[in-house]
Amino acid sequence: MDNTDTKRFKVVKFEERYFDELKDLVRTGWNPNHVLLKSDALFRWHYIGFGVNAGMRFPLLFDGDKLIGYRMMTPIEFTLSDKKGNHKTIPLSASSLYYVDKEYRGMKLGVMLEQHVIQYYGGYFTIAANPVTAVPILKRSGCKMIDTMLRYFRPLSEDISPIIVENCKHSWRYMDAGTITPSDVNSTTLADIWYSSIEGKNVTALNRSALFWQWRYIDDPIYKYYFFRNNSGLIVARICDIFNEQKEKTTNKVLRILEVVPVNQNVWDGKNDEELSSLIDGVCGWGKNQGCLAAEFYFSSRRFDAVMKDAFFEEINLAEPLCNSIMSYYEPESESHRLSNVGIMSSIVPDDFDFEYSYFTLSDADQDRPNIL
After folding, report:
1. 3 falls in which pLDDT band (50, 70, 90)?
2. Cβ–Cβ contacts within 10 Å for residue 289, how many?
3. In terms of Cα–Cα distance, which of 259, 352, 354, 336 is closest to 299?
4. Long-range contacts (CB closer than 8 Å, 24 or more residues apart) made by 51-58
5. Which of 236, 278, 289, 361 is the 20 to 30 A CA-CA neighbour of 344?
6. CA-to-CA distance for 185 and 178, rounded, in angstroms?
7. How far apart are CA 192 and CA 35, in angstroms?
8. Which of 60-74, 127-141, 278-292 has the lowest mean pLDDT?
């Protein structure tokens, strides 16, 4: 238990004995239908994380014996790179549900939770922070941020009207795709591919160790992820089912690419690689055969522009009005534009950190997890 300035309020690390009480506060204070309340397996997996601080030890806020708040964090590790390509592993956490009971707001109790997170985890990483409430606070606190990830998009059907949400006169380029089948790959091999790819390169990312790959993709209790590899690199993808506003599954699907790891290190310098583009194209062909209308890849840097362009993708998040014309939320479908800002809060990350030398995708926080079971 952590001592605070008063005897009344205290911040306590999560223990199993608080699990049911915590779920009750999520139910009454956050959302009675939150997906994490529907599956203990998903809840536990989501917050176990990986790395030196793996396990559910996020801070809970008490008024005496009454649970009044929480800041649920997923333990992660970062590979922090310098300009020479030297890498340093640091502990961090991925930010998720953050709550203080309305009766106690304005008492700086959220600051207590924040301080605990920074002291215990070393800082935090976030994707899709609320631009009205959270982002201004993050920026004032010194969080390094970009406003949006790039979104690479490719039609896999001549008719993508089911995922167009606004009147869009853009001429989409539909191209036939090759095909490749998924591979069975273990976490150690996945880590070896990653470390070989970034060796000596200026790439700051989550530390994609064997523990990362095992936890994030292989052990996911709900989603099925597929691995594709050849001599040019590694791709990880999954099929996104689209649910309507009534939360009913439709027949429409989208292929989401979560990882693109090149073997040719020149790709990190923005160079094209025909074999890697061909691999991505083959994954798209596989997705098309599974019934996917389109493929997408969210990324924090322009380093893969050439590779994605040669695989017939267009970047649409920075292009008006394209960014608002293609559906980006699938569970359930929505006309609102998907938030994909990225922030890092850590005293170890330099003030002049450049996201162009980063590797972040939607899988790195809580943006590629189920909303509907």
Report:
1. very low
2. 12
3. 259
4. 51/75, 51/76, 51/77, 51/91, 51/207, 51/209, 51/211, 51/212, 52/77, 52/91, 53/91, 53/93, 53/120, 53/121, 54/211, 54/215, 56/14, 57/13, 57/14, 57/120, 58/13, 58/14, 58/93, 58/117
5. 236
6. 22
7. 34
8. 127-141
pLDDT per residue over 216-264, tens digit each? 999 999 999 999 999 999 999 999 999 999 999 999 999 999 999 999 9
Identify the burial level of 55 via C-beta atoms within 10 angstroms of its C-beta, where 0-12 means exposed, 13-18 middle and 19 or more buried: middle
CA dihedral (216, 290, 40, 59) positive or negative: positive
Upstream peptide bond of 370 is cis (omega within 30 degrees of 0): no
CA dist list (Å): 97 to 23, 33, 113? 12, 14, 12
Q: Which two tokens stand for residue 87?
A: 């890498």
Helices (runs of H) and strands (runs of E) counted in the chain: 9, 17
What one-letter code names the amino acid at 248? Answer: E
Q: Are 58 and 73 in contact (CB under 8 A)?
A: yes
DSSP tag of 339: P
Question: What band does 6 get if pLDDT is binned at 50, 70 and 90?
Answer: low
- Contact of 265 with 201, CB cutoff 8 Å: yes
| Mean pLDDT, residues 348-372 taken together | 95
The rounded distance, in Å, linking the Cα atoms of 272 and 287 is: 23
Q: Which of 110, 109, 149 is nearest to 129 (CA)?
A: 149
Nearest to 370 by CA among 281, 256, 235, 213: 256
Give the strand pairing for 144-146 and 358-359.
unpaired
Query: Please, are residues 96 and 126 in contact by the beta-carbon 8 Å criterion?
Result: no
Tokens of residue 171, six digits: 């001429």
